[in-house]
Amino acid sequence: MYNDLKHVFEMSRCYVNISQDRLWGHCKSSKSWYKVEIGTPFFDTRLIMPRLNDVQNTALEIIDFLYFYDMVALQSFTEEKKDIYTQLDELIDEVLEEKQLTGQKAVIYRHYLLCGIEIVSSFDKNHKWQIPELNLNERQQGEIQDQMHKQSVMIPLWHLKERLKKSGRFEGDFVEEVYTLIELSQIDKASHSVCHKLVAQMLWFNVEHNVACHVYRRMVTLRILNSAKDTAKGRYVEAQHEYVFLRALLLVEFESFRKELYYRPVAGDLVVNKSRFTSSEINSKKKVYYHKYLEFSLSDNRDGTVIHADIDLADKRQVIGHLSLISEHLFHNCIFSNSNANWISLLGALLLIYEQEIDLDRAIYSEFDNENSCSDRAQKILFEKFDFSVTAKSLYLNYLEVYKIYDLIRSTMVDVVEQPKHGFLVPDLTSHFYYHADIPTKVLELLEEVKR
Fold first, then answer.
1. Taking a C-beta distance cutoff of 8 angstroms, is the pair 404, 36 a contact?
2. How many CB atoms lie within 10 A of CB 9?
3. How far apart are CA 3 and CA 19, in angstroms?
């Protein structure tokens, strides 16, 4: 009875319900909850716009996905994380040096080590798992704990090791190195917020400005996406950010791997409640998400995308080929915008929020003297570092919209990391802020009222 996988996933799914109910609570408690625009673009994208192809749509979904994780990492960064992540970087550097790994192989192996550390450290081996309908004795508790450890740690680690083999040839005992790094860094004894989504947080920690900016810049450079705001002056120095794009794609791959292990065992239990759907445009988005969910969960192709160590991400054809493969495993509806025209201003708005976070006394925007304000600094970063030209006022106006979701995500994440460690097999964080099979009806009602 205790080996039934359904118990494992039902217990981990409680994580979704807790967070979603509290998400609704944060919406109601906010004075302007009815104005919070989540799950839809900030601008009316029904105007006549150039039609995007499948690869371009996938590129925007990836940027939206990374933008969300940039937001989570920015608002939850602490001195504890800084100290532990710095130490962890140094320890991994020693491993790479000892193995004489350089270039893309070193980046990929670093990524897999971080994935393994996240899988192990996000599980609390001392947690008392309860099944409400059963009165468990100590022996039964131990059996459940062993089963949870197997499903949440041992099985994902085995799959991760197999994926590493597909990525390239790496010598040594990968799993042993993961446990050694955990023991040396003591990250498993750190707070839940340090271990939670470690791979995404470490990527943001290692990158100047935000990850989504770098990825959008690369998409424009490769002419996969176009932008009228691209000055094409060559200010963005690829060599200084050589592996950001690779690490970003590896993060997307890792989160798809998590979904693959989490959703497929419960796909057979999924029942689509058609009574929730109407003919309205916003409800059609739910249908799209359900469709993506079912396609992913029931697909015969169970081999997730694996980036190989010899991939050339400066080659447009190879990047397009990889994006096409990603689209089969990434089910993500854009939270912030599915319109390419909006993204430069949105990226700048997040840069503005960062400037505000590091200096709360700095002015955000002024119509009269905007020199050295948060919006001015963000505008200059976009122009001087990323080669995009946009006005400070445009960034400020987007900031006013973006900050509503930023604040909502902040409140929700506080609740998420206050929960006990539930292990690696939990839903993707973005699903808390968009349509999915388990989202509460009250949150759906809120999304119905979103202003188009």
1. yes
2. 17
3. 27
In degrees, to the nearest 5, what angle opens at C-alpha 441 toward C-alphas 436 and 447? 75
User: Is the distance from CB of 215 to CB of 63 less than 8 angstroms?
Assistant: yes
Question: What's the per-residue H, E or C state across 269-335?
Answer: HCCCCHHHCCCCHHHHHHHHHHHHHHHHHHCCCCCCCCCCCCCCCCCHHHHHHHHHHHCCCCCCCCC
Nearest CA among 206, 185, 203, 205 for reference residue 120: 185
CA distance 144 to 8: 9
Ranges of the chain with pLDDT below 70:
1-50, 127-134, 136, 263-304, 431-452
Report field, pTM of the whole predicted structure over 0.85 = no
Condensed to tens digits (0 to 9), the pLDDT of residues 328-367 reads 777 777 888 888 888 999 999 999 999 999 888 899 988 8
Element (H or E) spanning 415, and its range? helix 392-418
| Cα distances (Å, whole numbers) of residue 184 to 55, 87, 101, 106, 351 | 42, 9, 21, 20, 34
Could you tell me how far CA 115 lies from the centroid of its own chain? 14
Structural contact between residues 30 and 408, judged by C-beta atoms closer than 8 angstroms:
yes
**What are 315-326's pLDDT values in tens digits?**
999 999 999 888
Angle, alpha carbons 168-309-166 (nearest 5°)? 35
Spatial distance between the Cα atoms of 352 and 401, rounded to a whole number of angstroms: 12
Length of the chain: 452
Tell me the C-alpha distance between 23 and 347, whole Å: 24
DSSP per-residue letters across 111-133: HHHHHHHHHHHTB-TT-----TT
* Degrees to nearest 5, angle at CA 247 with 76 and 394: 60
b/e code 238-250 from CB counts within 10 Å (16+ = b): eeebebbbbbbbb
